[in-house]
Sequence to fold (120 residues):
Amino acid sequence: MVISVFIDRQEIIAPIGWYAAERTNKVRLLVSVRVTFLGMIEDDDLANTLDYTRLSTLLIECAQKPQKLLETYGKNIIQHIKADYPKNLQQIWVRIAKKSIDQIQSNAEGYGIELKEEYA
Fold:
């Protein structure tokens, strides 16, 4: 059975951004992640799936270190998911959005990146 566990738009305040002020003052990010894997639900046991509480904590932990690029943060998320859940992974998708960038004047609804890694 193909199973996807996801978190949609978790708000994280993090020292991430190209501009020093973003790393000093921290920015508001909305982070989404979807982990797809092959699994069997034979009984009502958390051991048969991914714990999205742990996944949520992982998103927060990866955001604690100052970083300049959202891509770096996304890559770290993917690496930690692979280390924590190496069994039967098919795909990890991450979307990270900023609501605004103080250093530019724009009327965009958001700025961000998406990363996807697929496994055989």
Remarks:
- Helices lie at 20-25, 52-62, 70-84.
- The radius of gyration is 16 Å.
